[in-house]
Amino acid sequence: MNRFLSRRSFSALACVAVVALAMAGAARAADEAADVFIKRVSSDILDAIKADKSIKNGDINKIIILVDQRVMPNVNFLRMTASAAGPAWRQATPEQQKRLQEEFKILLVRTYSGALVQVSDQSIALKPLRTAPEDKEVLVRTELRGKGDPIQFDYRVEKTADGGWKVYNMNVMGIWLVENYKTQFAQEINAKGMDGLITSLSERNKSNARASQ
Q1: CATH number for the domain running over 7-212
Q2: Which residues contact 79 (CB under 8 A, 6 or more apart)?
């Protein structure tokens, strides 16, 4: 396990992977409630994964394409990366910001992709939503239910200009994705600077790519 993914955080992210796909696929309905949106599209994508024999057989290239094309466009990745980088983001050059986003995206895509083969008979259950119609940012709480105990998932979503939603943070069993990486990124930045963080992420991504071949 590498410096960016502790054993505990990797386990959490593997769980996040399944429900992160809840952001994929379907067109956004204007003024649709955040929890209804997550329930609708998560059920659709879970069904699609279960029916895809290539994914169930571990076709990593197909899984990566699925995540990249159908998950990431529904995440505010700029906000997620900036939050994970912390104060160093504002001090980074535009080129450093671009490279960090690219490497961070590759890391998350491969992390998610490696977990998709675990999907079997899970379904999503919503918890009561506490929000007002005018809220632009909402906390949506769900559970992933299947064999074994339910797994808690929380999503922080923001309303977009077209009336849809995008995710900017996720929580699994008490571990927030952005905060998890923020701690790890800060350690790397303090030791080697922003370029050192980017280099470390790049090296890890290349290692993951070789391992999947």
Answers
A1: 3.10.450.710
A2: 158, 168
